[in-house]
């Protein structure tokens, strides 16, 4: 415990309305004489201060989030990336938000689409790339889910429209679970998506991209007989 330290103002904690009240109760119960129960600007924190500053802090958090999202929407309208690295691309130095195709990764993406169109399952494709030492988007190994993705969230190699020259932003949003404090993703309605054309980022042609059918083909076998990988575009 720091005996002589005071916070400048309770707003500095930026806990939000509910967490600020809980924090105040714990501090008052455990350290009733602790100087941290007082603020430099407002003196000792009573119930009224905690309530008012908690509301102000919550409003600041929510308004800040809205401003960030408005700024990111403007970045998308300008044809730039709003953040995050998509497999197959790399940032252009000196040009914030501008991307260019990364040739080695783009080659793997093309092979994935070609093999899938030829009948290979995501599991077979992932196993072949792993056997060749191909670097995955994240982690240590390729998995079927990396290729297959999630239909509702629109992620996964086969579901990324950027590979066909279309950039979509705001398909999901992050919210905090009040019970656990953990951030979880939620799917946004299509009316809130922001779509822009990005022909300079196209990796696969439209015909090949359209050949992946969702939901995935139930008739495709998860087993490819020995010797078929060459025919599926996965040979050496």
Key structural traits:
elongated; alpha+beta; about 240 residues; about 10% strand; disordered N terminus
Indicate the proportion of strand residues: 5-15%
Mean model confidence by pLDDT: 76
Assign an overall shape. elongated
Distance between the termini: 63 Å
Sheet with most strands: strand arrangement: 1-2
What is the number of helical segments per DSSP (H or I, 4+ residues)?
6
Rg (CA only): 25 Å
Low-confidence stretches: 1-8, 214-229
Q: What composes the largest sheet?
A: 2 strands, antiparallel
H/E series: HEEHEEHHHEEEEH
Class per helix and strand makeup: alpha+beta
Please tally the β strands and state the result.
8
Report helical residue fraction: 25-40%
Number of domains: 2
Description of the molecule:
The chain is α+β, with helices and mostly antiparallel strands. It folds into two domains: 10-64, no CATH class; 89-210, no CATH class. The protein has six helices and eight strands. It has helices spanning 17-30, 47-77, 103-118, 122-131, 144-148, 206-210, and strands at 38-39, 43-44, 89-91, 99-101, 166-169, 172-176, 183-187, 194-197. Strands 1-2 form a two-stranded antiparallel sheet. A two-stranded antiparallel ribbon has the order 3-4. Strands 5-8 form a two-stranded antiparallel ribbon. It is elongated and about 70 Å long. Mean pLDDT is 76; it is low at 1-8 and 214-229.
């Amino acid at each position: 415990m720091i005996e002589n330290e005071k916070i400048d103002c309770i707003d500095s904690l930026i806990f939000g309305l509910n967490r600020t009240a809980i924090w105040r109760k714990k501090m008052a119960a455990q350290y009733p004489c602790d100087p941290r129960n007082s603020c430099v600007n407002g003196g000792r924190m009573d119930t009224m201060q905690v309530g008012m500053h908690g509301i102000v802090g919550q409003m600041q958090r929510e308004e800040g989030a809205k401003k960030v999202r408005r700024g990111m929407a403007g970045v998308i309208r300008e044809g730039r990336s709003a953040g995050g690295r998509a497999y197959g691309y790399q940032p252009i130095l000196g040009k914030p938000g501008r991307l260019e195709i990364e040739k080695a990764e783009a080659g793997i993406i093309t092979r994935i689409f070609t093999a899938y169109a030829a009948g290979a399952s995501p599991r077979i494709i992932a196993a072949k790339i792993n056997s060749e030492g191909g670097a995955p988007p994240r982690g240590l190994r390729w998995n079927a889910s990396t290729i297959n993705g999630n239909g509702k969230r629109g992620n996964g190699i086969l579901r990324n429209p950027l590979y066909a020259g279309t950039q979509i932003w705001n398909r999901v949003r992050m919210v905090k679970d009040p019970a656990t404090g953990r951030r979880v993703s939620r799917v946004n309605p299509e009316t809130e998506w922001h779509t822009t054309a990005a022909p300079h980022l196209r990796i696969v042609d439209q015909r090949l991209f359209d050949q992946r059918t969702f939901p995935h083909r139930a008739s495709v076998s998860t087993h490819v007989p020995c010797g078929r990988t060459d025919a599926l575009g996965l040979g050496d």
